[in-house]
Amino acid sequence: MKNSFIIAFMLFAFVLKAQDVKELTLKDALQYAIENKSDAKKAKLEVENSKYKIAEVRAMALPQINLSGGLTYNPILQESALPGEFFGQPGQVILVPFGQEWNSNAVASFSQNLFNQQVFTGLKAAKSTREFYQINQLLTEEQLIEKVSSSYYQVYVYQQKLKIAESNLESTNKVKNIIDGQFKNGLARKIDLDRISVKVSNLEAAKQQLINAVQLQENTLKFFIGMAIEQAIKLPENTMEVTAVVFEKNTDVSNRTEMALLKKQETLLSYQKKAFQAEYYPTLSLNANYGYQGLGKEFPWLAKPSDGVYWSDFSSIGLSLRIPLFNGFSTSSKVHQANISLEKIAEDINDAKLALNYQFENAKTQINNSVINLSTQEQNMKLAKEVLDNTQNNYVNGLASLTELLDAENALTESQNNYTAAQLEYKLAEIQIIKSKGELKTLLN
């Protein structure tokens, strides 16, 4: 009863696990990555954070209002020396204390930038910074799409290799059973049985290695998309549909997201230069304050003149003008550095354009070569299957040796794996073509 309960429990757990398997199309994997991978999430947060950066710069153009207050106790008042004539004592020096023991004040201050070129330039730069992070988010998603797509097809390739290994193992086991029967009837040699047994053992070992490899590739894919490693997945049967088409068109790499990001960086650097140049401009601001002060020999809060504490208010309104004349060439040095930064980003843009064209041409060559290779490997696979079928038939009828049969099986396995590799090669080149056209996001549709 105990063993029956354990077996039933294991079967129940297996069924639950099988039901929890998530079928994952390429579109599903990409969408999951966009929504769950930390890189994509952080890029979205950067865009959101840029709103607050704009607000931070905008604050410099808005009024600044502050409240301040203080309470001071002077146990020893500072004395000043005054001529005795002030007090009817000519020729004498009289030490007179100034101030009161207690001093309390509350002040409200207001300031407003009327003209500050650095602030105005900063506002424009802040808006461009937001656009920069939006482009960066798009680039992050495209990079994620490229990485996930490549990993996804790698999983499929290893799954196909595993299926090929399982099929070959099943086929070789059938041959082993035939030889085993022939050996028992004295129609086959023991060496033939031993050789086929070794082949079966090797195929079983290879199958186990592929099972492990599939698991590793699946784990890699789940990591790339931000999925829990323990989540079981499976890929649809039609994952690697290949419509091998020769690609001859050219593309304009200036529309690529990488180029847009570099150009936006160039814009930001130009604003930085303008911000440095703005240090040459004068600044004008309006300032005002209003305060209330209490002085006396007693603690001033809640005290009245009858308590020896006197309260009075005060205020001021003024303009503050600052005209920069000379700062030791500091501003000039900053402007020169900004010019060099602009020259460097211009070189980066030119180099990126060359690199993107280089990648596109390589991808175009690769996909065209893959078309040829795919067709060749498909024909080889069909031919190897025909050879194996004929060899198996000849072997059963005693017209072929075991060596010929094993060679035919090896040839079929090799051709099947070569065809799968050719499919992967084509798909990876296809991803690069789509990337070169700036259309990676279309894989989400």
UniProtKB/TrEMBL annotation:
Residues 1-18 form the signal peptide. It comes from the Bacteria. Keywords: Cell outer membrane, Coiled coil, Membrane, Signal, Transmembrane, Transmembrane beta strand, Transport. It is found in: Cell outer membrane. InterPro entries: OMP_efflux (IPR003423), TolC-like (IPR051906). Belongs to the outer membrane factor (OMF) (TC 1.B.17) family. This is TolC family protein. It comes from Flavobacterium ardleyense.
